[in-house]
Each structure stands twice: as structure tokens, then as C-alpha cells.
Amino acid sequence: MIRKPLGALAAVALVLLFSAIPLPAHHSVTAEFDSSKSFTVKATITKIEWVNPHTYIYADVKDENGVVTPYSFEGGPPGALRRSGVLKTMFNVGDLVTIEAYIAKDGSKHLGLLHAVRFADGHQILFGRAEDSEGKN
Amino acid sequence: MNARVVSFIPAIGLAAGLMWLVPAPTSAQTKPGIDNKNVPIGYGLDKDQPFAGADPDGTGLPWKEPPAAEVEAAKKTPTPHLSDGHPDLTGFWAPAGWGYAVTQGGVSADGKTRYTQRGGEGPVQSAQKKRELKNRLEGPNLPPYKPEFVEKVKYLGERQSHEDPAFKCAPKGFPRVGPPTEIVQVPDEVVFLYDTVNSSEQNAFRIVSTDGRGHDPSLNPSYYGDSIGHWEGNTMVIDVANFVDDTWLSQNGTIHSDAMHVVEKLTREGNAIDWVISIEDPKIFTRPWVIERHLIHGLKGGHALEEAPCVEHDYNHLVNDDRN
Fold this sequence. Notes:
heterodimer, A: CATH 2.40.50.140, 15% helix, B: alpha+beta, two-stranded antiparallel sheet, 16% helix, disordered N terminus
């Protein structure tokens, strides 16, 4: 797993963009995740939960010794994701993907807020805006 | 090669990428026995534009109000009526509840990256967000609590992330669910259907009896209450009573008692509905709390209902009281 701080500029951009679209009926992201720090894992999707108030993707990460650790990744609400062009059917149990996620503030090591899901064929789904990601992906 | 891979062929580019989101109309047309010609797909108004006017009258509620010019333009079309002579409220109404924010996402020039096109949050709440939250608790049309309830409501509102029943997947109930998203009207009843986007609601609906009956004393108290409607001229007047007392009226800790009683009025003019609710609660309010919004008929044939169960995973990971 790689932990990396985002660039200062990117962090400022995120702050400025904050609250562009309010997502009511659930907690603030800032109460649970730190969008200035992300981690990246290669994982196999084991479960896709398309529920309110947040979608969840579960995935197993296998280390060099073959030890498997289950991870949980939070996404947006299903309705908001659909309006953003992201459907449940774009993910499949068994997909080997690279996931970049923001860390949980409570120190949970195997929990993250989805930032990007990169698939083996080279396509990716990025939970954010294109203009905030130029040069980073 | 699966469909997803095909959609990422670079030459197809952005347009094809956007089409990737929706069922191809041509394939739908081949379905036997169904005329799928010109069936609109999508949400909201034809323009698919979110209205900016959330909480225009300082209620602390996120229900949006369309621009006045849009409402006036919508009123200019003829008002449809049912054969019984009453205005027909049937249709898909927008913006309802939270309003709509349709981005359809974006696709990179090479077709390989899909973006949700939604801005993220910074690592801590911005000053702008903090101002918004403060304004939400200080608007000019907040619920008129008796003095002895003010501190409790403030406390609950500031600790919404931990105290809001809807955050733990309890129904928001009526009236917090807001104006109806879709209405189906027949001579003896009107059915209200509610958008569940971003919500803990699960296919929420209300059935409003309009056949002259009174409230049913055998019903248990409920999240949505017992709704009885009648016509006063061109206005549908609905009396809603028999509520449970554990819902909030907004996200601001706004409790109510089991004595809550709501009068809801809908007046259709052309393609607009004037929607007014008057929330009475003699145990904790000093006077009725009145809220008005205008609904505009949305995309013809559109539906906003989506099934999504509510499963709470986050509560044990919250590290502060930041609200959204």
C-alpha cells in the first residue's frame, strides 16, 4: 500500500470546490475522511453494495506472502452516482482493480473514500472532476 | 469484447461515452409489444438544470425554489382537468425534495476515464460551508418553537451527524420528505411518490383519500401520517395527522410532538403547482410554520423514483460533528 500526500495546490483546489453539490441526509465527508491523504491498493472486488446513504465496494488485497486483507471503500449515494454517470453495473465481483482512496480520519487502515477505480483493460472511473485531475491521472 | 470495452474505443470519444450511460433507444424499440418511440430518458426538467434557489425563505430546509420567471412561464400553458372537472395534478414534478443536480459525468478525450464531475470536499470544512451551516440555523422562517425547546433543537441541529434519525436510516417522514416528485390522480384518491435520491427513504409514498372519508381512528401513528384530501375550488387541500413523534422536520434538529398536524395545499396552474404546507404543533410551536414552494412539471414521462435500501456504515467512524 502506498500512502501519499496530495500536492498543496490540489488540496487547495479541493477546498475551493468543496460543497459544489451538497449531498444531504448523510454525514459530511470531512467527519470521516481526509481528502489530503490517499492510499492505493491492487484488489479484487468481492462485493458491491449499492445502498443509501453511501455505496460501498468491498475488495480483497493480497500481500506478497499471499495474506488476504478485506478492504471497504465508500462511494457517493446511488442516485447521485447515477446522475454522474456511474452505475453499479460498471463494477463486477471478481474484477482485479487498482483503487485509490482517501484515508479514514479515525485511523481505520482498511477503509477509504473512493477516488479512482482503475480496471485491467486501462479504463478508469474517477470520483471527481476532470479539471481537478489534470496531470495526476 | 464486452460492451464496456467497446465504449472506450478512443475514436468514439465524448459523445459515445455519454451514450454509454443510458440504454440505447434502438434496442428498446425492438422489444415486442411496447412502443418505445420517443420515450424520454433521464431526470428533471427538459433542460436538466439544477435550480440554484435552495432555501430561499430561510427555513433551513434544502427544498429548492425555481426562478420566478420559470414559474410564470410554466403557468401560461393550459391547466389539464380530469373528467370530474378537477384540475389534474398527475405528472412528474421538479424540482422536488432536494432538487436535481444532473451532470451526467464526463469522459476524457481518449475515452478511457470517466469522471463523476462532482467537486470533492477538502480535508476540513471550509469557511464557506461553515457560514452555510450557520445560516441554516438563523434563517428568517425557522420553525416557531416555544422558548423551552429552543436550546434542545439547537443542540440536536449542531450534532446532526450523530443525532439525526435519518442518518441511521430511519424514514424522514412527512413533511421532511418535501414536495411530491410524482403525482398520480384518479377520482377518489391521489397518490404522491417521492424521490429517494440521497435519502434514507425507500420508495416513499402517500395515498391521499379524496372520496369524502374522514381520518381512520384505527390506524397506528406513522411516519407519513394519515392523509385526507378535498377540493376547495381549484386547490387540493390535504389534512395530514396521526404522526409518530420521532422524525425531524428538517436537518436542523427540528423535533415535533405527536400532536403535529399538517395542512397541505396544492394548486395547479398550467405546468406549475403552488405547494404550501402549514405545520401545526400546539405542544411545541407558538404558531403554525408555513412553507411555500413552486413545482414545475418535469420531463414528460420522466420518473425520479429509484430503489435503494438504506444501510448505515459510517456512524462508528465519525471523528467530529461536521454536518453536510
